[in-house]
Amino acid sequence: MRGVFSGLSRRLAEVLFSTNRLCLLSHSFSTRRLAQEEVKKARIPMANRDYCVDSLIPLNECRRENYYLPWKCEHERHAYELCQYKLYKLRTQK
Question: Does the N terminus or the C terminus of the chain have fewer Cβ atoms within 10 A?
């Protein structure tokens, strides 16, 4: 599992796993975590292997199936962007 979160900074890791923020995480993010093998099989670049990688894999699969048409995969794209936004808000929280 360590390789999946290799892109996280030390500060973000402290925020994500601190005990006083667990209630925020339990409601904000998906509970499904991926194994490193799944991420490698999906060919996700190292730069995108963050906490939202479990939303990125279905988005990329949908994009490939629909030839990257912009009006397709709106639900998957929204889920990924929402996860990224929540991660940003969590990072910038003081």
Answer: C
Q: What is the pTM of this model?
A: 0.66
Number of domains within the chain: 1
28 pLDDT above the threshold of 60: no
Q: Domain residues for 19? A: 10-92
Residue 20 domain-assigned (yes or no): yes
Residue of 44, 55, 42 whose CA lies nearest to 83: 55
Four-CA torsion 61, 12, 46, 51, nearest 10 degrees:
-20
Question: Three-state SS for 7?
Answer: coil
3, part of any domain: no
